Amino acid sequence: MVKGSSEVFKFNTRTLDPQNPGILRRPLKAMRERIPESGVIEDRELAEYYNLMAKRYMRFPCQRVLKRVLAKGIEKGRAMDVGTGPGIFPIFISKAIPGIRFKGIDLSPVMVDLARRNAIEEGISNRIEFEVSSAYSLPVEDHSLDLVLCINTIHHLDRPLDFFNEVARSLKEEGVFVIVDFHRDASLVFIGIFNLLWKVFFGKHPKAKRGFLESIQSSYTLGECRNFLDRSSLKHWKLYTQTVEMWIESIKPNPPLSPFKKGG
Q1: d(Cα 10, Cα 138) in Å, to the nearest integer?
Q2: Which of 1, 199, 211, 220 is the most exposed place for a label (fewest CB within 10 A)?
């Protein structure tokens, strides 16, 4: 969630108070149009601030993602975190699942440097690596990954379909994925509440104050995301919501029906 170019938010039937964006002025059902947000942090001071706040407050989100990974039976193997930022999620999961080997990628060299530093501080730099790379060209061989994570990154992508196809290309046949992001057709009640929480925990830096709303505005609706998924090479997925978030997860395919056997 980084500062983008948008200073105006357009809505269907409800609006946020422009003088106090955390407060609902009139009821709103959904944001009308997507306004892209820059996905690359080049400001070292801002990156250090996000890194500090993430290490301080992201334990619960990390636990939620870990729970979903464990539920899919992942105990070892190769994994990739796309849009890793300072590496908080793969570091947390690597410590909880020692048999996993993560590679985290991000377009920001500053964030990749911070992620490497965090891995060293946590004592796991020998089994996790970070590099500058793109979500549209994952740096792995075909069908080589057991797990793909992508947390709060889809809203930075202008071509989610290409990313979903890359996930399909990189995963083993039995590989799994957990993708989490915002959706701009979330309830404005939830958006207002989470915006206030953002300001309390993350919004003290002047460049970060509007970060949450800008990320919501640049996110995709459930319908848009479902359309990308339907057109992609990814199979066996489910899409569901939790407050302002949408979760996209792999699911096990239904076993083939046994042929009907006639009695003798």
Answers
A1: 34
A2: 199
For residues 129 and 157, the answer to whether their CB atoms sit within 8 Å is: no
**For 19-37, how does the pLDDT look when each residue is reduced to its tens digit (9 = 90+)?**
444 444 433 444 679 999 8
**In degrees, to the nearest 5, what angle opens at C-alpha 134 toward C-alphas 252 and 83?**
65
Question: Which tokens in the block code for residue 221?
Answer: 């609706």
Element (H, E) at 161: helix 160-170
Residue 146 corresponds to which tokens in the numbers above? Answer: 């057991």
Amino acid occupying residue 110: V
- pTM here is 0.85
Percent pLDDT > 90 in the chain is 74
- Name every residue whose Cβ is closer than 8 Å to that of residue 73 and which is 6 or more positions away in sequence: 176
Tokens of 60: 């619960």
- Please answer whether residues 205 and 171 qualify as being in contact, where contact means their C-beta atoms are separated by less than 8 angstroms: no
Distance between CA atoms of residues 47 and 98, nearest Å: 28
Q: Which of 146, 149, 133, 157 lies closest to 248, judged by CA?
A: 149
pLDDT score for 259: 56
Q: What is the pLDDT of residues 220-240, one digit of tens each?
A: 999 999 999 999 999 999 999
**What is the number of other CB atoms lying within 10 angstroms of the CB of residue 67?**
10
**According to the CATH classification, is domain 53-250 in 3.40.50.150?**
yes
- Do 2 and 39 form a contact (C-beta atoms < 8 A)? yes
Residues 6+ apart with CB under 8 A from 246: 180, 181, 182, 183, 222, 225, 239, 240
Task: Enumerate helices (H) and strands (E) in the chain, giving the number of each.
Answer: 8, 9
**Secondary structure letter of residue 11 according to DSSP:** B
